[in-house]
Design goal:
The structure is a homotrimer. Chain A is α/β, with parallel strands linked by helices and about 150 residues long. Chain A contains six helices and five strands.
Chain lengths: ~150, ~150, ~150
């Protein structure tokens, strides 16, 4: 009986350790179970900070290819545009058509609020469906700390 | 009594797991307590590896905006310049004035020692207050492994 | 006897927590033992996504300098080329000579299969010794999730 209690407590201890570990699972080499869990949890934040349509197209290609490779439902993709890169997300952007396609595929398009203020832009200047985050770099930092992958195309 | 001992040992086991986990807290989704801890521990390493004053200004803007958003005392910011980016940190740099302002705001400016050797520069060629790390990329690797966020503007 | 069993089980619990933690060791501040383990486990993925020989040379310099700083046997280095960066790894690349030297030093050169398909290239178009990964960005994501450091020169 004592042992049974102790075993129960042990199970609780192992469980506690397990729960505490959960958040870092995405950084770990995986057991089959974790691999299954992982397969649903790919997360990618792409940074656009250049005023260059070729770079914007590359970022959009990256989003598209990652979705095709991993399965659209298995990966969350965000494109964060800040600094000179913000022009990508303006209504008059040279990639405006592709922005719509990306949104249709559930790619999040996020504009840096700090850059908008500096460029005297409002949400009305952005392409439809673009969301604004307070700060682009702070948002990227937060995503990294949450375990998202980060790529600057 | 036996159970009491076992329980004590269990507590030790849980504690041990907890201690071992501490270093990865910054990667974890947070309990309120951890969130409080986290708020004081934002850390960002910015990479400058381009010979382009527009890129240097972008990196300096990023440092400034992150400090304003998170509170200067809640975030450590380093700018690591290497390769062609090292020119940013020379005494004659086009952003020399902004370097002083960044240093005043406790942004660390770090020059790559390997690049300096290749460019035959000494510390006297750098702006005042700039520190030298043996290798820029190795320093960035180390910071990432310590849990710092990484952004290449 | 019961306590002995419980203690044995406790040891197993602690061990289980320890084993589960192993994969994130590279993110943790280290005990001496872990530091020793770490010294053999530096891992760096370098991204090349620009069609610019200066950028290619910078990436190759980065690989070289990291190996010299950490010891060639203590660090794994991969260069992943995708998008416009894929030209770096073609047989006719302007850095073809340096590619051979990198391979001799055990730097892995990885070409993005998705980009190759878009550019209608086959493995025969690539420099000898280059390997192909299905997708460059997905490969970088995977490496990050495995705890590799990531630098875009």
């Amino acid at each position: 009986m004592k042992l049974a209690l102790a075993t129960q407590a042990l199970a609780a201890a192992v469980l506690a350790a397990g729960v505490a570990l959960t958040p870092v699972v995405s950084h770990a080499q995986s057991t089959p179970q974790q691999a299954a869990q992982k397969s649903e949890r790919h997360r990618l934040v792409l940074q656009v900070s250049e005023n260059d349509p070729a770079n914007w197209n590359l970022a959009l290609n990256n989003a598209e290819n990652v979705q095709q490779a991993l399965g659209k439902d298995n990966v969350q993709v965000e494109i964060v545009a800040y600094g000179p890169g913000l022009n990508m997300l303006k209504g008059e952007s040279k990639v405006a058509g592709r922005l719509n396609a990306a949104l249709d595929n559930n790619v999040s398009l996020l504009a840096c609020g700090t850059t908008m203020r500096k460029m005297k832009l409002t949400k009305a200047d952005l392409a439809g469906g673009v969301n604004v985050v307070p700060g682009g770099v702070v948002h990227i930092m937060q995503r990294q700390s949450e375990g998202w992958n980060y790529v600057k195309p």
